[in-house]
Amino acid sequence: MARQKLFKKIVDMLVELKDTSELMLDLAYSSILLNSKELAEEVQALEEQVDKLHTDFALLVLSVGISPEDSKDFLGLIRIGVVTENIADAAAQIAEVVLREIKPHPVLALAIEEAEETVVHVQVSKESPLVGKTLRKAQIHEETGMWVLVVRRGGKWMRPGPNLKIDAGDVMIVSGYAEGEDDFKKLASPAYSST
């Protein structure tokens, strides 16, 4: 039974590694397309989290007490962990382009210049009508025109699934047309004033 719990923990950690590395790629590409230092900084913070998670994952896999017959299967798990960390490292390198203010290719520079999108970080206040609602019920895009890219709760980043319930204190990172920025800020934090 204890071994089964250990396997469940290994699976959960592997899923978290995979999801976090995918999220990092999404944020890294968005940071370049939107020329957003805020998103690039989020990617860098996530990279540190993935490094620690990968180390914990590899140590947990090694602690299972592997028989010679099972060693190839567990080696495969460790290799998958290494690949997810490599993806996270690649995402961090993409974000580094924005942080180091490396001049983008002229075609990309034109695309960035003509983009009407913006990225916004807002902490959800306890007075927000969003608190306690799932992302589906909150209808943020319908209300503001903004798309939720990621939700940070404490030290954990979460992908925006429709059933994710919004808590006071969550930091929501959204993207959309600049016209929706004030509407989103007022929705997430009613005390917000654009003046």
Number of helices, counting only DSSP H or I runs of 4 residues or more: 7
- Global shape: flat
Beta strand count: 4
**CATH fold description of the largest domain:** Methane Monooxygenase Hydroxylase, Chain G, domain 1
How many structural units, i.e. domains?
2
> Main sheet, how many strands, which sense, barrel?
4 strands, antiparallel
Strand order of the largest sheet: 1-4-2-3
Which structural class fits the helix and strand makeup? Answer: alpha+beta
Q: Average pLDDT, to the nearest integer?
A: 86
**Helix and strand succession?**
HHHHEHHEEEH
| Alpha carbon gap, first and last residue | 60 Å
Ranges with pLDDT <50 over ≥5 residues? none
Strand residue percentage = 5-15%
CATH structural class of the largest domain: Mainly Alpha
CATH architecture of the largest domain: Up-down Bundle
The helicity comes to 55-70%
How much is the radius of gyration in Å?
19 Å
CATH superfamily of the largest domain: Phosphate transport system protein phou homolog 2, domain 2
